[in-house]
Amino acid sequence: MKPFKQAKILLALGIAAIVSLSSPADARSFQDESGYPSVFSYTYLQLGGGLLDTSEDLDGTVYEGRGSVALGDVFYLRGEGSQQEGDDDGDPTTTFLSGSLGVQTMLGERLGIYLDAGYMRNEAELGALKTTIDGPIVALGVRGISPEKAFEAELRYSYSWFDDLNDKTEDRNLLRSELVWRATENFGVYLGGSWEEASDDLTVSTYALGLRLSL
To answer: Which CATH number characterizes residue 13's domain?
Structure first.
C-alpha cells in the first residue's frame, strides 16, 4: 500500500471515531461528550530498558523513554526516544526520536482511544558511518483499564514514511503493546513489547520493563 494512502486511512479512522464520539448534539461538556469521563492520565513520564531481537539474528539491548503532557481535557503533546545497541562490536547503534500532537476521547467507561501525528528521526551508526532518516509519523491507539484500576493496557499502531538515500519513499509499521501495574495512583511498573517492520527483509522486536510516573 502506498505510504500516503495508508497514512490517510489511519488518520481517517481515528478522526471519524473521535468526532463521532464528540458530537455537538450532546449538551455535555467537550471532555465528556462520549458520556464517560476520562480515567486515563495524558501527563506522564516513563523510562525503561530491555532486550532487542531482529529477524537477522542481531540481539542486543534497548533503552527507552516516553512522555506526554495534557493540553486541557482533549489534546496532548507526546515525545518518545529510544536507543538500540547490538551485543557485538560490529553491530550498529540506532537512535529514534519523535514528537507528536494528539487528541483523545473515551470509547466506554474503561476504554479510551487516541490519535496523534508528528515527526520522527532515526539515526543508525556503525563506526564512522552514520545514516539518518526522518519524516512524518501518525499513530492510533486504544487504552483500557481494569475495573479496580490496578492494571492498564495499551495497544498502539504507528506508521511513518521517509525518503531513503536514493530519494525513494519507504515506510515503516510498528505495533506496540503495553501492560501497566498501577502500584499507586501516580506510580506504576510497565511491561512493553514492540514489533516493527523496518523493511521487507528486516523485522525488529523489543521487550522492555520500566517505571511510569503519572501526574
So the answer is: 2.40.160.20
